[in-house]
Amino acid sequence: MVEAVLIDLFNLPANLQNNIQELLHHTLETIEKCSSIPAPFVYVMCCQRHGSDRSSEEESLLPVLRDFWSLTERLEVVPSPTTAAALYTIKQRLDEKDLSIIKIILPSLRKDFMKVYIDQLFTIVYQFEFEDLHLTSNCENLQIAEPESEGHMLPAHEVALIQREIQMYMESLPSLKGELTFLKTSLIPDDIFLHGFTTRTGGISYIPTLSSCNLLSSSKRRDPQAVVKENLRRLANAAGFNPATFHRVKCDHANAVCIMGKKEPDCYDGIVTNQKGVTISAPGADCIPVLFADPIRKACGAAHSGWKGTLLGISMATVNAMVSEYGCNVKDILVVLGPSVGPCCFRLPHESAKEFHRIDPKCVRQFDSAEPYVDIRRATRILLESGGILPENIQDDSVTDQNQNVTFCTACHPDKFYSHVRDGTNFGIQIGFISIKD
């Protein structure tokens, strides 16, 4: 059953402009007549004319709205200067109420345009269906219809204009939860490499567990590509890298490594490069974002090391790729473990914990329990040292000077970091990033 109805009165054709109140009246009449209990939430999207204020747009529709007392508490007029602004405002209303099943009633000529906006501003968490804006008394219109066949594709220049409108709107939004900040380590030489580990502040993501600098859009969550792209743009601006040459690993919780400039695997948890100005990154939200730097051969890498990837040796696989591809000496490679879940908060079933116990008994606490605490950072260090990385070239939470620490427990610091362990499935993502300076 439809949870929300969006009535699009933006850019009405000229022949409908003079009948806007009549159109709205008949549309609301049908919604009221055909709705189940409770009625869906209704959002009327209209253009806020230049020089006018929000209230004047709403007042022009008030005579119509007063006739629909049963919808009053679930009815809102959303006047905005652009379609992007109106849709994003409505998206916030939907997310506040955890609504996902939406009918859009709009002029048929607007349908293909609206699909582009939806593709940019929503994820597949939401279900949309469309209905032409016309007089109707068909009560089945508020049922979920079968997916319709694809409409006509908009010309590329029209799509580009919509994308630019969305981008400009995203850029205008205020940062949330304070300034954008990222952590750096003195182990990686600043004159050769640009690097950092992001925190959760300074972006525009507004959903509580994703707020505010979420850096990954997922089909399972409500943060769309447009928001993540803007968060990345702000990070790039603050850190000084080019977002157009930014690459992140395609996580599979395994040990494949991508060599920049060669054929890209379908999935990989490590990535290496010796190209200047190319920024590579690995995500984390409890899993470890690991950065690698060789200041002698001027090569770098990034890896996503969850508990499965740690056991499969993703960190040493990344080191080995740097050695084989760029002639790095393993003793020159510097490795930094970023914010990740600590042994204070991370538990695994006993059978999985046994694998870490084999690496080193000190990697597991309360080993005899059903779900022991596991230290994936310590296991990563041991595997790296076993592979030839010098102990002094590894930075993790064992640093003696805590002012130099970048390996914070993500679960213990909700103000600074995202955490799957703490927040559940709707978690945000921070990253570790690195590039070779031009």
Automatic annotation (TrEMBL):
<keyword id="KW-0576">Peroxisome</keyword>
<dbReference type="GO" id="GO:0017061">
    <property type="term" value="F:S-methyl-5-thioadenosine phosphorylase activity"/>
</dbReference>
<comment type="subunit">
    <text>Interacts with FASN. Interacts with SDHA. Interacts with ATF6, EIF2AK3 and ERN1.</text>
</comment>
<comment type="similarity">
    <text>Belongs to the purine nucleoside phosphorylase YfiH/LACC1 family.</text>
</comment>
<keyword id="KW-0539">Nucleus</keyword>
<dbReference type="GO" id="GO:0005634">
    <property type="term" value="C:nucleus"/>
</dbReference>
<dbReference type="InterPro" id="IPR003730">
    <property type="entry name" value="Cu_polyphenol_OxRdtase"/>
</dbReference>
<keyword id="KW-0862">Zinc</keyword>
<keyword id="KW-0597">Phosphoprotein</keyword>
<keyword id="KW-0378">Hydrolase</keyword>
<protein>
    <recommendedName>
        <fullName>Purine nucleoside phosphorylase LACC1</fullName>
        <ecNumber>2.4.2.1</ecNumber>
        <ecNumber>2.4.2.28</ecNumber>
        <ecNumber>3.5.4.4</ecNumber>
    </recommendedName>
</protein>
<keyword id="KW-0395">Inflammatory response</keyword>
<dbReference type="GO" id="GO:0005507">
    <property type="term" value="F:copper ion binding"/>
</dbReference>
<dbReference type="Pfam" id="PF02578">
    <property type="entry name" value="Cu-oxidase_4"/>
</dbReference>
<dbReference type="GO" id="GO:0016787">
    <property type="term" value="F:hydrolase activity"/>
</dbReference>
<dbReference type="GO" id="GO:0005783">
    <property type="term" value="C:endoplasmic reticulum"/>
</dbReference>
<keyword id="KW-0963">Cytoplasm</keyword>
<keyword id="KW-0007">Acetylation</keyword>
<dbReference type="GO" id="GO:0031347">
    <property type="term" value="P:regulation of defense response"/>
</dbReference>
<dbReference type="InterPro" id="IPR038371">
    <property type="entry name" value="Cu_polyphenol_OxRdtase_sf"/>
</dbReference>
<keyword id="KW-0256">Endoplasmic reticulum</keyword>
<keyword id="KW-0399">Innate immunity</keyword>
<keyword id="KW-0391">Immunity</keyword>
<dbReference type="GO" id="GO:0005777">
    <property type="term" value="C:peroxisome"/>
</dbReference>
<dbReference type="GO" id="GO:0006954">
    <property type="term" value="P:inflammatory response"/>
</dbReference>
<keyword id="KW-0479">Metal-binding</keyword>
<keyword id="KW-0808">Transferase</keyword>
<dbReference type="InterPro" id="IPR011324">
    <property type="entry name" value="Cytotoxic_necrot_fac-like_cat"/>
</dbReference>
<dbReference type="GO" id="GO:0045087">
    <property type="term" value="P:innate immune response"/>
</dbReference>
